[in-house]
Each structure stands twice: as structure tokens, then as C-alpha cells.
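Structure in, sequence out. Go:
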């Protein structure tokens, strides 16, 4: 029996292309693992009305970790029109399978390192080393939404907070509401993870990226928890910034920051910005990490127009493999992967179109495998 069972979920679009690249490197490392394919994505939404079939949930439960490619997500109307005829008008609602996975498996921590590798011509600067900790299960992504706003809900809210009354004249049928729900536990946890990481890897600062001056209750709660957690780490400074200002500071002085921590949506936004600073989504890796299980995926999406062309940059996925190896405890292998990726970037001989080259996804992976 292999040491690890890994759920293998290519998903949609270029997910397949980059997973093939991952496999080249994992095989070269001779990781003692069995890879078990799972169904997820748009195809299963269209034909089964569920992009994350129960059999895939079961598969994940029987494995040690999951590697995931990419997913296509669309707003509800487009999603409806793509269903096979017999499933249309059944009132099925499309919800992003990756968001569901994060919530169902309580993968509370989204880890997104953004480090500039020397020699990457797309680096905004060469001295950037950011690590985003994004809360991954709640906030505006909780999935508690209304449209129209039911009368009873309106009345209950009005009883507790009359500010909502000014919206009544719009007509409840014209009001959409998405709840931003943040708990003390998850807020405390994500900040603690960020500080632990900073401590372990020698970062001097943790910057909390919120908007407590306006979102007094939700961002306020996160900030208050952050201040409490920070007291346990006297050697690391807690910096407090607002999300809007942070976007500006990250363009101005990204080299001044280290670990960033944010709620789900602000973390989503800031992690794309950080990714662009180090060469774009082609270099951005991520891990969705819970207490006993984790799903690793590159930050990029499914890029349908490039699907199957083996054109896209596999570095994001290869760095994602590195995160998975770290989490499994295969530290040496993880270091090898990062080192090989760094070498291939530095030599700049084998590279995909986004970095000005013409190598394929798989050629880059093979080159990385040779440098292991
Ligand atoms: C990400 C993506 C997802 C998210 C989408 C695909 C639902 O943007 O992982 O950052 O918003 O979390
Ligand atoms: Mg995103």
C-alpha cells in the first residue's frame, strides 16, 4: 500500500493541463502515493445538476489530501441555461464547488504565498516576499443571501436596527442581501495561523487587512481578535491597515510587508493583487488547510480559452505541489521542488508564453523535474 492516498481533481479547463504537469514532478520525486481521480466541475453541473457529486465528497473523506486543478464558475442565469434539458426548471442553484469544499471540510485557512523568484521578468520588484492568510469558510462567502428580501426578514432586522428602513421604498423585491458573517473563533484562528507562520519562518510583521472604520462589527471583531492574538507574539509587530489603503501600499511598497491576514473576501481580493506583483496567477499557489485535511489548488482559474492547449504556466501548480508536500511532512521533497522551480525561472530557457517563451506546460514541468 502506498504511503499516501491523494484525491486527484483536475476540474475544468486548464485544470487538466496543469495537473498533468504536477504529475510529471510528483513522479520524478517518486512520492509514495496513490492518486485517485475524482469528478468535479462544470461537466457534472451540466449533466447531473451538481458540480461536486457526493461520490467526490466520499472520495475526499477516504484520502489524506487533495490536489485540485481549476474550476469554472458562472453567475446563476448562465449556469441555468447550460443544464441538460431534463434538469432545467428544477430550481437547481449553482454554487461554487471549491467554496463548498472549503466549508464542508472546514478548510479554515487559505494559505497563499507570493514570493518573487529572481530572474522572473514579470516581477514587479525582485524583493517581494508576501504570504496571505485568508479566512476560508465564512464572511461574505457564507452563502446566506436573499433576493427578494422576505418581509419577515426585513421586519426582524428593522426591529433590531432601524437603519434598514431607508431601503423599504425600493421595494423588497428589488433588494438583494448577502450576509457578512464572521465568528470570533474563525477570526482568532486565522490570525493565530498567520502569527505562527510568521514566527516559524522569521517574518517580522503580520498585517491585518480589514475595514474596521466602516464595517465596525465584522472587521472590528477581526481586528480586536488580532490585537489579542498579537500579545502572545512580542517579537512580531501587528500592523493594521484598511483594505483600500492596502491596495495602494502594496503597489507603492510591497517589499515592506510580510505576512498578511484577512477575512475571506478581502483575502480573495488582496491575494490576486499580491499574485500580480510576483508575475501573475501563473506563479500563485494556494492551500486550503483544515485541522486534518487539506485541498491544494493554484490560485488561477480554469482559463477555458486555453484548455487542452498545454500553453499555461504550470509554476503556480508546481508551487502548489510544494505546499502539499510541506503539509504532508515531506519537507525535503518540498524544498527540492521550490529549488527546482527557482532554478528554471532563473535560467529562463524553458518558459511559457506569459513569461515571453514558447515552451509548453509539460516542457516546463519536465525541465523542473530534471532540476530536482
Ligand atoms: C479563489 C477564487 C475562488 C474564490 C472562486 C473561483 C470561487 O477566486 O480561489 O480565489 O473566490 O475563492
Ligand atoms: Mg480569487
Amino acid at each position: 500500500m502506498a504511503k499516501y492516498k491523494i484525491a486527484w481533481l483536475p476540474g475544468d479547463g486548464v485544470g487538466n493541463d496543469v495537473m498533468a504537469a504536477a504529475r510529471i514532478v510528483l513522479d520524478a520525486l517518486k512520492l509514495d502515493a496513490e492518486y485517485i481521480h475524482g469528478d468535479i466541475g462544470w461537466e457534472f453541473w451540466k449533466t447531473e445538476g451538481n458540480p461536486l457529486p457526493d461520490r467526490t465528497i466520499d472520495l475526499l473523506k477516504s484520502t489524506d489530501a487533495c490536489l485540485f486543478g481549476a474550476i469554472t464558475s458562472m453567475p446563476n442565469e448562465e449556469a441555468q441555461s447550460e443544464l441538460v434539458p431534463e434538469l432545467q426548471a428544477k430550481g437547481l442553484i449553482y454554487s461554487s464547488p471549491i467554496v463548498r469544499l472549503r466549508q464542508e471540510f472546514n478548510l479554515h485557512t487559505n494559505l497563499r504565498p507570493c514570493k518573487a523568484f529572481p530572474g522572473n521578468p514579470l516581477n514587479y520588484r525582485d524583493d517581494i516576499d508576501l504570504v496571505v492568510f485568508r479566512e476560508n469558510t465564512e464572511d461574505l462567502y457564507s452563502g446566506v443571501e436573499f433576493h427578494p428580501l422576505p418581509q419577515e426578514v426585513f421586519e426582524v432586522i428593522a426591529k433590531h436596527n432601524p437603519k434598514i428602513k431607508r431601503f423599504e421604498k425600493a421595494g423588497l423585491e428589488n433588494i438583494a442581501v448577502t450576509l457578512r458573517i464572521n465568528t470570533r473563533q474563525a477570526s482568532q484562528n486565522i490570525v493565530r495561523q498567520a502569527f505562527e507562520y510568521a514566527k516559524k519562518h522569521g517574518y517580522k510583521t503580520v498585517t491585518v487587512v480589514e475595514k474596521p472604520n466602516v464595517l465596525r462589527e465584522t472587521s472590528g471583531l477581526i481586528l480586536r481578535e488580532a490585537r489579542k492574538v498579537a500579545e502572545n507574539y512580542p517579537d512580531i509587530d501587528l500592523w493594521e491597515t484598511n483594505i483600500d489603503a492596502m491596495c495602494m501600499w502594496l503597489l507603492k511598497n510591497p517589499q515592506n510587508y510580510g505576512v498578511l491576514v484577512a477575512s475571506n473576501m478581502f483575502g480573495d481580493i488582496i491575494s490576486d493583487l499580491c499574485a500580480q506583483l510576483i508575475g501573475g496567477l501563473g506563479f500563485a499557489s494556494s492551500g486550503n488547510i483544515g485541522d486534518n485535511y487539506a485541498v491544494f489548488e493554484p490560485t488561477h482559474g480554469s482559463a477555458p480559452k486555453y484548455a487542452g492547449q498545454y500553453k499555461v504556466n504550470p509554476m503556480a501548480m508546481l508551487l502548489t505541489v510544494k505546499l502539499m508536500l510541506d503539509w504532508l511532512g515531506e519537507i525535503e521533497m518540498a524544498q527540492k521542488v521550490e529549488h527546482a522551480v527557482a532554478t528554471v525561472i532563473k535560467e529562463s530557457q524553458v518558459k511559457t508564453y506569459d513569461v515571453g517563451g514558447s515552451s509548453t506546460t509539460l516542457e516546463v514541468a519536465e525541465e523542473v523535474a530534471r532540476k530536482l
